[in-house]
Structure formats: structure tokens, C-alpha cells
Amino acid sequence: MKEVVGVGLIGYGTVGSGVVRILHEHKEKMERETGCDVVVKKIVVRDKEKERSYPLHGAQLTTCIEDILEDTSIHVVVEVMGGTEEAKEYILRAFEAKKHVVTANKDLLAMHGEELLNAAARNGSDLYYEASVAGGIPILRGLVDGLASDRIQKVMGIVNGTTNYMLTKMTEEGVSYEGVLREAQALGFAESDPTADVDGLDAARKMVILATLGFSMKVAFEDVDVKGIRHVTQKDLQLASQLGYVMKLIGTAEEKDGAVSISVAPTLIPKSHPLAGVRNEYNAVYVYGEAVGQTMFYGPGAGQLPTATAVVSDIVTVVKHMRLGTTGKAMSFASRSKVLQDDSNIHSKYFLRVHMKDETGTFLALTKSFVQENISFDKILQLPLDDENAEVVVVTHSTSKKQIQQVCASLDSQYMEMVSLYRVEGE
Ligand SMILES: NC(=O)C1=CN([C@@H]2O[C@H](COP(=O)(O)OP(=O)(O)OC[C@H]3O[C@@H](n4cnc5c(N)ncnc54)[C@H](OP(=O)(O)O)[C@@H]3O)[C@@H](O)[C@H]2O)C=CC1
Ligand SMILES: N[C@@H](CC=O)C(=O)O
Ligand code: NA
């Protein structure tokens, strides 16, 4: 008879049902990997009467967290309900009950990571959270284990499946923002409040986790410069395409001379760049290490089975630690204090759309604003807008964030209006 390891799930939605499915369908592989029979015993949900799309395979549904916390046959608690305050309380109580925790909750890790890791260590519990960033891609293990020997310089990529799905469909099929957001929700990619996806908050939380692990620095959500895709228009996508780019929501975390900058923003990427070919809910993360150079991690970033794969792999890790008697482990967190980069040291190329009066001298005024900030043009396109106005699209050479902000402030006048501003990466 194999030793039984009991699992308690909190949440039986997209990810939770995937966890039960993988544990059931990959039972033999689980036994080979762990030497144990890993069994989901209880599942906490909000509504016990709700129809479930996947069978429970013997697990008992409950609405009472104590049913899990007080059950001594449950060793591992898997939190896949989402949210922060209640989830944090349940996880802290699980540690006090000397249980190990696996979670997919990036909101929680980005906000309370340090507190949770300290509580896990105090109680000799494991805490793993691979599913919290880039769903099924083993990016956190890649950073923490695979690149443990290197000094990480930059992490950059697509870390939100919902917005990548939306931008892909909007670009390739010209579909509307609202329609494609509903599709992403129906497919189980979006957060329960999808504003977290479209406003870049979900990606920003993932970048906090990546930067914390990559640079071992105590960064917070407030340190991320965040912009989402809500204001991206079909015209932006068309003009970008005309100039050879596709738009992606890109997260960037970079350390230069001991200071870090973190951002999430819709960004233009050359069509020939590997990130341009990352479509639908897929994610891809570039990690640049001082010694290794450039590595790229690619795979499904959201959805039931990819995300559940990461969760179940974390369960495997925990069970192995239990058998070896080496629990009390977690993906390590930050040891260095935070130093943030100055805007004058953050460089990028930019794409700008400017509407201006089609009169002699306005174009010269536009050029002068850029010259004043020492910014030169890489590409420029002028198109008629109506009888009196023209649209000018500019791609600059690399410039600092501070300089581009100063130019933008000088552009809005009675003759000119800046319509869009996006970073350009990968050239
Ligand atoms: N979906 C995805 O692709 C990914 C999701 N994640 C993360 O995984 C977590 C779960 O996401 P997902 O499965 O999509 O979410 P769902 O909304 O599909 O499922 C949430 C589940 O949690 C239960 N639940 C919610 N609030 C409570 C509560 N207060 N008490 C008890 N149970 C509760 C719900 O119960 P009921 O069924 O009764 O309503 C439901 O079963 C989130 O943190 C999310 O960010 C991470 C990576 C990818
Ligand atoms: N809503 C998230 C789910 C995975 O983290 C996303 O779309 O990436
Ligand atoms: Na992952």
C-alpha cells in the first residue's frame, strides 16, 4: 500500500477543476514521481449547489475552510480561489496548521509575498507558486533553479494571456475589443475582474514576482509603471503594421548599475521578432543573464490544463520534500533592498501619432520640439486626416523616458495633439 498524501483544494473553477483532472488522469505518473498516492480529499467553494463541469472523483465539496484546516489527513493546501485578503488569511492559517501550500495567486504573492514566505519558514512549511506567472511555463523554476548561478540583467516578455489573445484577434481579424474580451473570459483566461488583465495590473503583479526573484530585490506593485490596452485602437494597430510592427503587452524589468526599472505597457515589436509570433493566450519571457546571455521561455500562459500542470508539478515538489524530510522550502524571495532607476536612465525607441493643423510651419514646430530634446527620428509618415488636419506618425531613435515625456508635454497645443504613444522594443 502506498502512503497517501491528502490535498485540500480551495477553489474549483478553471484551475481547481484542472488540478483534480490532472491528478486523476496522470495518477500513475504521480505515483512514479512521488512514490505516494496523492488524493484530493476536500474542496472549498462558495456555492456547493452549483453545477460542476468536471467530476469530483471522490473529493468532498464544502463551503467551510475549517473542514480542510482541521483535517489532519490533509497535508497540502492548494489555493486556487483568487483574491487577496481571504486567500491570505486561509494560507496563513494553513501554515499554522503545519500544512504546505501551493498557490496560483499572483495578486497575493505580489502584495504579501514576503509575509507569506516568512510565515511558511516559521512553520516549516513549503510554499510554491509556479502557476502564478506565465501559467504552464516553468519560468519561476527557470529563474530560481536553472539560472541560479547567473546575475540576471533583464526579464522581458508577454506575461498576460488574456490581452495577448485580445491583441492577436484584434490585429489579425479586426474584431472589436469588447467582443474579444468576452471570448477570453469564456475560455477561462481572464481574471474574475478582467480589468486586472486589460489595465495591465495582472501583468504588473507577475513582473513584481519576476523582478523580485530575478534581482532578489524587494520591489512592490507601486514600483511598476503600468499601462494597459484599454485605449489601443484599430488605427494604432493598422499604422503600426504599416511601419512593420505588431503590438504586444510587454512587461520589462531591468537592472542597470544596481538600480531597477519595471514597466508594463502596450509595445510595438518588429514583425520579424520572435515575440511577434507569440499568439493568442501564449506567453513568452526573455531572460538575459550576464553569463548565459539570452534565453527565452515560451508556452501557454493561461487556461485550465496548462495552469493546473504548474500547480500539480508544485504538489509533486512538496510531496518529494515531505518524503525526504526537507520541507520548509519556498522559491526564495528578496534579500536586497530596493533601488529604483531614474527616468533619465531608462531608454527606448518610441512610436507617436500626432494630429496637427495641415499648415505651413506646423511640421517645423513638431520637428523643433524633438530637436530641443535631442531626439532624432528613425521613421516618419504623414497622412491626410481631413481637409484641415494631417496625421504624423513618428518612430524615434532610442531616447530616455524623461526626454520623451518632455516632448509629449510640449506637443499638445492648439496646432498639435498627441493621439498615441507606445514604446518600440526589439530593434
Ligand atoms: N484561469 C487561468 O488561466 C489562471 C488563473 N490563475 C489564478 O488562479 C486562481 C483561480 O483562477 P480561476 O480558476 O480562473 O478562477 P475561477 O473564478 O474559475 O474559480 C474560482 C473558484 O474559487 C471559488 N471561490 C472564490 N471565492 C471564494 C471564497 N471566498 N470562498 C470559497 N471559494 C471561493 C469559486 O467557488 P464557486 O465555484 O462556488 O464560485 C471557484 O470554484 C486565481 O488566483 C487566478 O489569478 C493563474 C494562472 C492562470
Ligand atoms: N488572467 C491571466 C491568467 C493567468 O495568469 C492571464 O490572462 O494571463
Ligand atoms: Na509558470
From TrEMBL:
EC number(s) on file: 1.1.1.3
Cofactor list: a metal cation
Top class in the EC scheme: oxidoreductase
BP-aspect Gene Ontology terms: methionine biosynthetic process; threonine biosynthetic process
Pfam families assigned to the protein according to its UniProt record, in alphabetical order: Homoserine_dh, NAD_binding_3
Catalytic activity line of the entry: L-homoserine + NADP(+) = L-aspartate 4-semialdehyde + NADPH + H(+)
One of the record's GO molecular function terms: NADP binding
Pathway(s) per entry: Amino-acid biosynthesis; L-methionine biosynthesis via de novo pathway; L-homoserine from L-aspartate: step 3/3; Amino-acid biosynthesis; L-threonine biosynthesis; L-threonine from L-aspartate: step 3/5
Binding of NADP(+), residues: 10-17
Entry keyword set: Amino-acid biosynthesis, Metal-binding, Methionine biosynthesis, NAD, NADP, Oxidoreductase, Sodium, Threonine biosynthesis
Residues the entry annotates as binding NADPH: 106
Active site annotation, chain numbering: 206
Domain of life: Bacteria
Ranges where the ACT domain occurs: 351-427
Cited InterPro entries: ACT-like_dom_sf (IPR045865), ACT_dom (IPR002912), Asp/hSer_DH_NAD-bd (IPR005106), HDH (IPR016204), HDH_cat (IPR001342), HDH_CS (IPR019811), NAD(P)-bd_dom_sf (IPR036291)
Annotated binding of L-homoserine, by residue: 191
NCBIfam families hit by this protein: PRK06349.1
Family recorded in the similarity comment: Belongs to the homoserine dehydrogenase family.
Name this protein carries in UniProt: Homoserine dehydrogenase
